[in-house]
Design a protein that fits this description.
The chain has 245 residues and is α/β, with parallel strands linked by helices. It has a single domain, classed as 2-Layer Sandwich (BirA Bifunctional Protein, domain 2), CATH 3.30.930.10. It contains five helices and twelve strands. Strands 1, 2, 6, 7, 8, 9, 10, 11 and 12 form a nine-stranded mixed β-sheet that branches. A three-stranded mixed β-sheet has the order 4-3-5, with no helix packed on it. A hairpin with a 2-residue loop joins strand 9 and strand 10. The radius of gyration is 18 Å and the shape is globular. The two termini are 19 Å apart.
Length: 245
Amino acid sequence: MIKGVRVRDLGRKDYKPCWDLQEEIFQVMVKAKIARRNAGLSTTEPGPEGDRDLTLPESQMLWVEHPHVLTLGKSGAAANVVAPAVRLKELGVQYYPINRGGDITYHGPGQLVGYPILDLDQFFTDIHKYLRFLEEAVIRTCAEYGVKAGRIEGLTGVWIDPESGAAARKICAFGVKCSRWVTMHGLALNVNTDLDFFNLIVPCGISDRGVTSLARETGAPVDVEEVKGHMTRHLAALFEWREVR
C-alpha cells in the first residue's frame, strides 16, 4: 500500500516555532497510536470511520530554512560551542539545547532543513534503515548536480570525498528522535550556506574533518527550491510514499 505523506513548505521560520510545531504533530501521532493500542486496534490499518480519536494522523514532511541558530543534541557537549555567548549575540545566532540525538550543529540561511515526522509503523520499524534512507536521498540529490557524495562508517551524515580521511567534508548533518516509531527532527543539507558560521562550533563534535556545501562543490549558487524538489522526489521513491499537499 502506498502511504500518503503531507509535504509542507514552511519557508524561512525561526527555530523555536518549528520545534513547537514538530512537537505538536509528534504528540498527536503518538497519542493516537496509544489510543488505538488501548482499544485493541492495529497501528497500521485505518481506524473506525467517524472516530477521530482512533484515526491515525498522516505522516508529515516539513521543509524549512532557519535564521542563524545552533542546536545541541542530547548526546552533545556544550563545550563544542567554541564561540563565547557575546559573539553569538553579536552575530544574531540563537542557541537551543534540544531533544534529538547527535551533537552541536548550525542552521542558517541557504541551508535546507527537513523534518520528517513519520509513523514508521506505516513503513518499517528499523531506525538504522530510516537513517540510511535519509542519507541516500541526500546522496541522490547531490548526484543531480554532479557531486559524488557518500558515507563514513560509524559517522551518521553525508560526506564529500568520504574515503579521504581529514580531507572528507560533511555536506549534510542528521539528528533524529524516535518514540513509539514516530520520528521527528531530521536533516540539514548545506546548499548555499555561509560555512564561516561553522567556525563557531565543533560541527557534530567532529574536529578532524570539515564541512562543505553544494555551492562550494559546484562552484556556483544552487537553487534551494530545486534542491527541495529533488529531495522530496527521492524521499518519496525510497519510502514509497505518495505526496499529499
